[in-house]
Write a sequence for this structure.
């Protein structure tokens, strides 16, 4: 029988039984966030690092999540390697973790990674002892460079962040999976459960998503759908799909049909 | 009084150390998950009592927030 432990996801020195990674932003309220994350089965939850509101304190997202999840800070919003590095260092100090989801974006319109800054930041972060999970374009060359330099995971986008467009170039994702040994996690663009299932069917090791759940009409239900989609897609990948053919092939016996 | 920049805002404050600065800004220096950088260098919490803030410093004070 299938056991999640038998098919665990290992990133750096940690092992996870869930292959779904989830964000903590954009939920209607904190309770729906907590319920959704729990329903998703995710063990890794991403957070951002932001300037403190000088007007007031209050509880942070960490106060809600701490202890139950592996917290993965990101460098979302950074446009340069320099800013990403400082954000990572601040995250390491604030959260006492050397794990970082590296994002360096090129513009606000597309939120596409700036590959030059991304590669420079990743190399420097690895040198400084970070465990880098790098959000990347879906081009095999950039992903290979990130994997070769020692990123703990390479995370190509399915489509632009928050677009819900799914996986626009499944052929590239397959190539990226085939060419690299480190975990490949589709990050960004997932809109609904079938997108997450496709990522897993293509052989990816995991899916990272945020908006698809948080902005769904019913986030908790969508989180449940994503959990099943990731698990289903993973099973399908391991089971091996049948080849596509141009002609039908009957599944019932051809012999003994009445009237022949 | 020193002119410094805190989280992108120019301010004039009377503060000798990072610890003093946080107090002056109504941030509890004992609050968890807070990190401080001065001029692009993170100041570890253990040095907040001794690290001094100087005229012209560019200071970032951060904490975790919901993210994707």
């Amino acid at each position: 029988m299938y056991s999640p432990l038998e098919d665990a996801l290992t990133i750096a020195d940690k092992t996870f039984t869930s292959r779904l990674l989830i964000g903590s932003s954009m939920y209607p309220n904190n309770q729906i966030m907590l319920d959704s994350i729990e329903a998703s089965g995710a063990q890794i939850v991403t957070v951002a690092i932001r300037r403190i509101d000088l007007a007031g304190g209050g509880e942070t997202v960490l106060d809600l999540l701490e202890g139950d999840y592996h917290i993965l800070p990101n460098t979302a919003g950074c446009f340069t390697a320099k800013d990403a590095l400082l954000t990572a260092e601040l995250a390491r100090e604030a959260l006492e973790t050397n794990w970082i989801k590296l994002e360096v974006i090129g513009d606000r319109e597309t939120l596409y990674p700036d590959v030059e800054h991304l590669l420079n930041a990743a190399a420097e972060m690895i040198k400084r002892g970070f465990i880098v999970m790098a959000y990347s374009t879906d081009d095999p060359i950039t992903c290979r460079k990130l994997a070769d330099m020692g990123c703990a995971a390479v995370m190509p986008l399915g489509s632009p962040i928050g677009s819900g467009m799914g996986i626009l170039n499944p052929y590239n994702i397959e190539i990226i999976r085939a060419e690299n040994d480190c975990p490949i996690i589709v990050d960004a663009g997932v809109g609904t459960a079938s997108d997450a299932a496709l990522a897993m069917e293509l052989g990816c090791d995991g899916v990272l998503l945020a908006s698809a759940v948080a902005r769904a009409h019913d986030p908790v239900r969508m989180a449940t759908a994503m959990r099943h989609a990731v698990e289903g897609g993973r099973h399908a990948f391991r089971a091996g799909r049948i080849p596509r053919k141009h002609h039908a092939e009957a599944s019932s016996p051809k012999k003994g049909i009445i009237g022949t | 009084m020193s002119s410094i920049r805190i989280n992108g805002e120019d301010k004039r404050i009377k503060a000798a150390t990072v610890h003093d600065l946080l107090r002056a800004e109504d941030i509890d220096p004992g609050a968890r998950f807070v990190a401080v950088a001065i001029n692009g260098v993170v100041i570890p919490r253990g040095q907040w009592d001794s690290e001094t803030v100087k005229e012209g410093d560019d200071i970032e004070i951060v904490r975790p927030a919901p993210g994707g």
Notes: Chain A has a mean pLDDT of 94. Chain A has one domain: 4-239. Residues 146 and 154 of chain A are 7 Å apart (CA to CA). The two ends of chain A are 43 Å apart (CA to CA).
